[in-house]
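Appendix C: a fully annotated inverse folding record. The material below is reproduced so that readers can follow the format used throughout the book. The structure is listed first as tokens, followed by the designed sequence.
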């Protein structure tokens, strides 16, 4: 079997187009949905990441502002900045880029974002709404995965879904969303015994561990739909060869950049046994950004629409 590639990039473009269309009537009324992306401790990679989010906003006609703060930013300064954004009428969504520098506690500051502007859905109020299946912002990555499954006509109801990873950002909300869609869900983590025997049961398998290509053939049930959330780097030519076989384009990327992106799933193995997989890059990543725009629009409609 050769797995079908699930084109997250195409689905993300579709969602971004819908956001653009839906924002038009609001913009004509003088209400432009606005996102503020706060980044503390600027390095080239994190800046690029925030820039890609603000650029996507602009392309969809939304307002966006990158707030770049130095690593030495104090608790008081960050709190003041978030309070200021909470109070601004033109900002509908506030994104706090994680991780924060060690002296700043992410929980304290995620809690400080007003729930009506919680674009990532990480505030405890949003988490409660998710658990109770009440309307509210959903964390962008798992929400993007759900959109992909629906738009690719992958049946969820009644299926066995296995998630590897139990973080607040991906694993836990993913489990909730799949449960609400009537999947029977198992969540695995670093203490799960005999992981392959559990993951093989998954008709839908979501890998969100942050471990390069760890999900090999023996972890995947024949015909499973595999969603690879992981974003890791292959850093040696041997790894690139092992993960991607004779993929010349990958090797060229590796040679040019000194590394290449790889997910948690071994791509060559998964292609042979899964029925469908998300590529890395071009799978879940673009969907996360598309859902950020969708959440910004929905928060704007709820507060100012
Ligand atoms: P975390 O580090 O917060 O969580 C990782 C989870 O994986 C933990 O629950 C951990 O278990 C589990 N885990 C780690 N190693 C193993 C193992 N060997 N076997 C079984 N379980 C394991 O990561 P995130 O959830 O934030 O992110 C996961 C991955 O997804 C990362 O690669 C990240 O870069 C990527 N990501 C991608 C996004 C995208 O847009 N594509 C967005 C967000 C994340 P335990 O709880 O026991 O420690």
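Designed amino acids, in order:
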């Amino acid at each position: 079997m050769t797995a079908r590639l699930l084109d997250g990039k195409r689905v993300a473009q579709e969602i971004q187009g819908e956001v653009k269309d839906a924002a038009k009537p609001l913009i004509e009324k003088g209400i432009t949905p606005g996102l503020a992306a706060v980044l503390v401790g600027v390095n080239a990679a994190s800046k690029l990441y925030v820039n890609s989010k603000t650029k996507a906003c602009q392309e969809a006609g939304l307002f966006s502002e990158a707030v770049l703060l130095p690593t030495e930013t104090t608790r008081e300064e960050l709190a003041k900045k978030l309070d200021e954004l909470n109070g601004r009428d033109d900002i509908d969504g506030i994104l706090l880029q994680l991780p924060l520098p060690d002296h700043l506690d992410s929980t304290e500051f995620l809690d400080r974002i007003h729930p009506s502007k919680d674009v990532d859905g990480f505030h405890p109020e949003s988490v409660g709404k998710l658990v109770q299946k009440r309307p509210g912002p959903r964390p962008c990555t798992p929400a993007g995965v759900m959109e992909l499954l629906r738009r690719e006509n992958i049946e969820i109801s009644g299926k066995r879904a296995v998630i590897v990873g139990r973080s607040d950002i991906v694993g836990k909300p993913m489990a909730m969303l799949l449960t609400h869609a009537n999947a029977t869900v198992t969540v695995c983590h670093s203490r799960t015994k005999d992981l392959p025997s559990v993951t093989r049961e998954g008709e839908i398998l979501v890998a969100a561990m942050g471990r390069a290509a760890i999900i090999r053939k023996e972890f995947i049930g024949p015909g499973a739909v595999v969603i690879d959330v992981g974003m890791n780097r292959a850093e040696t030519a041997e790894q690139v060869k092992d993960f991607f076989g004779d993929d010349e384009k990958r090797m060229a990327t590796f040679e040019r950049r000194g590394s290449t992106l790889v997910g948690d799933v071994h791509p060559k193995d998964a292609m042979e046994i899964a029925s469908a997989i998300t590529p890395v890059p071009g799978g879940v990543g673009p969907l996360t950004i598309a859902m950020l725009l969708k959440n910004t629009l929905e928060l704007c409609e709820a507060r100012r629409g």
